[in-house]
Amino acid sequence: MSMPLTRVKESLTGMVRTIEEVAPQRININAEPRDVKSIFRKLLEDFKNDFYLDFVAAVDYVEDKQFEVNYVVWVYSLKTILSIRFRLPKENPNLDTISDLIPSAINHEKEAYDLMGITFSGNSELKRGFFVAEGINEFPLVKNEVKKA
Amino acid sequence: MSGSKYIEIPIGPQHPALHEPILFRVKVEGEKIVDVIPSTGYNHRGIERLCEDNTFLRDVFLAGRVCGICNVIHTTCYSECIERVGNIDVPPRAKYLRTILNELERIHSHMLLFAILGELIGFQTLFMLVMRDRESILTLKELIAGNRIQADYVMPGGVRKDLTPEKIQQIKKALDQVRARIKYYKKVFENDSIIKKRLSGVGILDVQDVYRYGFVGPIARASGVKSDVRCEDYYAAYNDIPFNVITRNECDSWSRMMVRVDELFESVNIVEYAVDHLPEGPIGPKAMIRTVKAGEAIARVEAPRGELVYYIISKGGDKPYRVKIRTPSFNNILNCQVMFKDANLADLPAILVSLDPCISCMERLVVVEENGRAEMKSLVDLAR
Question: A79: which chain B residues are within 8 Å (Cβ-Cβ)?
Fold first, then answer.
């Protein structure tokens, strides 16, 4: 087992469903949506000033009728990306915000809401028109909402 | 403004100090900035969605149009990501050629910023001189890729054009001249009293805020954070080429410009080393890579403005399922309010330019091809 994987397992075992090193410097983590805050709280405790939130990617898995929200974190000392994934139902997709723990999350959550319609409880700045032009009610990255060009 | 001691001044979305559309709602108390709220949504182009509807091969050219100034690094990141998904090997010579063009792009991008800085602080001569010297780098880019700006040079599996010994000699000769000019500009940045007064101690970014807000690139390095994707998450030929990661500890707008000045020397050295040690061999696959097996990958590269990331999911076939692009300006501009507190209103353009803002790539044209014909459509039409 590589050193980064050992460190991440020491930190997050018991809080997440799976931790897997899928490639050098790439660790994928699957977890339950209810645990999003506690996971990032633990990361802040164990890796304080040693990581930053790289981006948040939302993916529409049409066949599974689910959204996936993928928090991607870069850990400086491990030189490794942690890709922390949460699956949400397509009806009322919601996660707790982590912007109170990591301030930069606020804009990533705003983008995920504006483009994919995922809501983040506790983030009071979610709004349409963050990126997408005003007057559009659809969420452009939801696959069945926008006709193909 | 009645009932409040603050006045809110809108700067943008169209403003002489801004070269692209973004709105900064600036709250001031007298001349002092109390808060700055960046407001986006003037330039979103739907490129991520467009990538899903186009093929892996056509997306190379879309990626190159996310940002005009740093198009080579976008195609490099996109191609590196495809290569990670498909386990595609890149010939060593192609890796070196990617490195050469990416560093030339970094040089002309940083030089463009120095010119804009000169313009914004009323130093028009600096603008003219830097833009003149930048031309020699654009000429080198044309020599290698065939175009001054929009290179479309990097492809999944390699690059599109090779270098000849004659071209290598031209590159070395031009770099000697550029190095001498950078030395001159370094002296100007270090000694010119107007530049120092406009930039020193202005727009302070605390190292803790770098971690909290995820600042990347020269901005993070100017606050003492030694982070550079080129030596953290190897791509192209950076694991073969020696270079220094430039950091400073002043944490202000001046240090952000000085980090970039010193990075220019490193970039010139990297290009010289790469052309001197260019491996022999092919520069790409025998056939264009049109399909990619099922899988996903995250690729990171060091763009001129900092870390650029592509996240691509393939379900097999010739089209990606999802393409996520996170540009450095997303982190650097949307969180910039922490640098403006207690600054004077007149410092705003100088702080902003020290961030090297690139709004188009942050928001990412809606070009819809119908019946084989490309036309412009509004996002409202696209959504219907």
Answer: 232-233
